[in-house]
């Protein structure tokens, strides 16, 4: 089966049908009738899959309906079925995500989340690399997402479906993560549309609104995950101080470099958390 059809942007296409078709391909390729937890690995989190357990199957995104190759440097264009520790449980590990700024539409942005739900996952971990507004959080600091500001001016939910986001980022899973690393701080993540970085004024606006972290992903996925009934853990890796917080210019190379430097720590942290689920 190819991802060439159907078209997620076609109003006649049911995105949940495409997610079911994607889950069927994953089940066939992996030999697992269901997965238990899904992970979306952003910048700096790539080593996590190796540390969770044995990778049993690697699947090219382009072979799965609705998915595409990685469009951002520092991301992997594959998904993996990983045995969690020495258990029979499986993790579905996405090495990349579709960002809203890629112009593929909101359905494509949240397709991995809906596919995870169709594959049987009950829990999802959303990670990202981001800019920090707290000078105490230097590059390489992981921060739990307590809440978010969706500044994309859109939603993945279609029609009159009113979804409660009060406790979107699971307090239970945040407590579990802090039981693994008591030094983990929490913060509010603000998603801008991108792909340009935020101006210093926009960063100050986000700060006034209550943000501690700024980036270009995650919130739309989290909303779709809640609609699908998944329990959500969000973790950001501060790869740089946001514009105006530091006097240094921003660059994607800096994001990748900071992510690589923190990869082992982040991977160990998240692997330990997932194994406790």
Automatic annotation (TrEMBL):
Record-linked Gene3D superfamilies: Nucleoside phosphorylase domain
PANTHER family: METHYLTHIOADENOSINE/PURINE NUCLEOSIDE PHOSPHORYLASE, PURINE NUCLEOSIDE PHOSPHORYLASE-RELATED
Pfam families xrefs: PNP_UDP_1
Domain of life: Bacteria
GO terms, molecular function: purine-nucleoside phosphorylase activity
Name this protein carries in UniProt: Purine nucleoside phosphorylase
GO biological process: nucleoside metabolic process
Organism: Luteipulveratus mongoliensis
Residues that, per the record, bind phosphate: 43, 75, 97-99, 129, 217
Its job: The purine nucleoside phosphorylases catalyze the phosphorolytic breakdown of the N-glycosidic bond in the beta-(deoxy)ribonucleoside molecules, with the formation of the corresponding free purine bases and pentose-1-phosphate. Cleaves guanosine, inosine, 2'-deoxyguanosine and 2'-deoxyinosine.
Taxonomic path: Bacteria, Bacillati, Actinomycetota, Actinomycetes, Micrococcales
Domain Nucleoside phosphorylase: residue ranges: 37-274
Pathway annotation: Purine metabolism; purine nucleoside salvage
Family: Belongs to the PNP/MTAP phosphorylase family.
Residues binding a purine D-ribonucleoside, per UniProt: 198, 240
């Amino acid at each position: 089966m190819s991802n060439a059809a159907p078209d997620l942007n076609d109003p006649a296409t049911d995105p949940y049908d495409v997610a079911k078709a994607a889950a069927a391909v994953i089940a066939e390729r992996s030999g697992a009738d269901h997965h238990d937890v899904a992970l979306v690995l952003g910048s700096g989190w790539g080593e996590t899959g190796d540390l969770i357990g044995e990778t049993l199957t690697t699947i090219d995104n382009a072979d799965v309906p609705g998915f595409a190759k990685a469009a951002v440097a520092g991301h992997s264009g594959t998904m993996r079925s990983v045995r969690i520790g020495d258990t029979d449980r499986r993790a579905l590990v996405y090495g990349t995500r579709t960002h809203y700024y890629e112009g593929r539409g909101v359905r494509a942005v949240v397709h991995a989340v809906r596919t995870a739900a169709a594959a049987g996952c009950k829990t999802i971990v959303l990670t990202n690399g981001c800019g920090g507004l707290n000078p105490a959080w230097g590059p390489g600091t992981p921060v739990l997402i307590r809440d978010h500001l969706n500044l994309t001016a859109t939603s993945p939910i279609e029609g009159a479906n009113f979804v409660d986001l009060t406790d979107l980022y699971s307090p239970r899973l945040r407590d579990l993560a802090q039981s693994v690393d008591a030094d983990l701080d929490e913060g509010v993540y603000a998603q801008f549309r991108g792909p340009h970085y935020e101006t210093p004024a926009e960063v100050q606006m986000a700060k006034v609104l209550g943000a501690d972290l700024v980036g270009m992903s995650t919130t739309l996925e989290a909303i779709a995950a809640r609609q699908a009934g998944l329990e959500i853990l969000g973790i950001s890796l501060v790869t740089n101080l946001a514009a105006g917080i530091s006097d240094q210019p921003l660059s994607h190379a800096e994001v990748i470099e900071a992510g690589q430097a923190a990869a082992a720590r982040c991977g160990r942290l998240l692997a330990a958390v997932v194994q406790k689920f």
